[in-house]
Amino acid sequence: MTTPERLAAPPQPIEPDDATLSAWLEETADYAFRQMSGAGKLPSWNTEGAAAVVERVKSEPLPERGMPLEEVLAKLDPAIQASFTTTGPGYLAYVPGGGLPSAALADLVACATNRFVNVDLAAPALAELERTTLRWLAELMGMPQGANGIFTSGGSLSNLAALVAARAEQLGEEFQDGTLYYSEDTHACVAKAAKVAGFPLRALRVVPVDSRRRMRVDALEQQIEQDKTRGLRPFFVVANAGTTNTGAIDPLQEILRVCRARGLWAHADGAYGGLFRIARGGDRLLPGLGGFDSLTLDPHKCLFLPYGTGALLMKDPEALRRAHATSASYLQDVTAGESLGITDYSPELSRDFRGIRVWLPFMLHGVAAFRDQLSEKLALTRWAYDELAREPLFEMFDEPQLSVVALAAKPPAGHALDANAFGAEVLKRVNARKRVFLSSTAIGGRYLIRICIVSFRTHADRVREAVEGLVAEARALATEG
Ligand SMILES: Cc1ncc(COP(=O)(O)O)c(C=O)c1O
Q1: Separation of CA 399 and ligand 1 centre (Å)
Q2: Using a 6 Å CB cutoff, which residues line ligand 1?
Q3: Integer Cα distance of 82 and 62 in angstroms
Q4: pTM score > 0.90 for this model?
């Protein structure tokens, strides 16, 4: 007689025995410990020799038989090192990400237990843990009772889910005549979201900004009225709670007023800046944030968590369900009442347990730790601005609205380099020191050096180094011209 044992010989074991498992965990923890405790000593970026590492990764054959963990980690390590040190204190470029050690603990627990949180019946208390954490975030943002949402992979997906919900609520299935509005300095992912959500380019309205890069509400109103007159259906306005470029905060309350008066959906993109509402005085910094219909947050920026941790909060979370929920017979065993659970509110079914990455650090550190960190970042930004403003070789773009300082170079008259080339050279030289890593942007044809202070490992000493480095390199370059 055929038995399963005869048909299928036992495979090579893939599950370690207890002793091996314990040794693996120890070895990996050791590796992670060295990475985390040494993050401050690493160069701020290290991609110069990356091409050789890329080649080695590319030429690695798929092994037929496995190798010891030590060897695997030894192969991985050069690829990790050959990168921008995004977890380091000197990472002040773009919008810095996090890498909080407590979130790594959360991920280890999440992967080790691998529960399914997107369907309520599969892990009811864990699904509730996610909803509770989202409710905490909504409360911190000043949103009304009942506000909730979903964890996403990041701001891009949060903005997309918000747009899809607004589209369904405001326009229905035939939406080609809908129009949406956002400022010139809005993150490119909003236009991408519109494209993915099926809107033609002609539906997008880019609203001009004022001298501080904030949306001009008069222009917004004008565009909306013009579109209405042309028989179009204005439905969605994105307000920036901190732009990526300069940290500009659009006039949130005025935008809300315009949306309320005309029945448009008000969405706030707070991927970079929204979480600064937790800082001391944050409600004055971002007035009206809690009144938006939807709000994008990126805990992988200002809660210092690992990449892949985004959130979308909704005043009426049921709008997400109406936009996303479907049913399937193969899920009939786990359908409880109306809803399957989180999956009904999002485009995803299977996914990682992201909520634990926010929940565990909140539980371990308390929200006060984040309030202190964010307040410190705002104070350091102000200090950097004041110091750099004293240097005649620089011209500050604007007073910081959040934690970005943007500045242009002002070379001495007759210098061989024009202001843009001078600024680019200063940035190159400061970055070449590998103590800090800064990035740049361009506004109105002007090259601007940007400092963005977000990392939990960035404190006064490293910000001072950034400022002193910029001043020293600019002065040295000025004498060369
Ligand atoms: C204001 C803003 N919106 C959206 C995004 C996109 O977020 P993510 O990279 O998490 O998709 C960013 C990223 O920097 C951002 O700064």
Answers
A1: 22
A2: 95, 154-156, 187, 189, 244, 269, 271-272, 298, 310
A3: 22
A4: yes
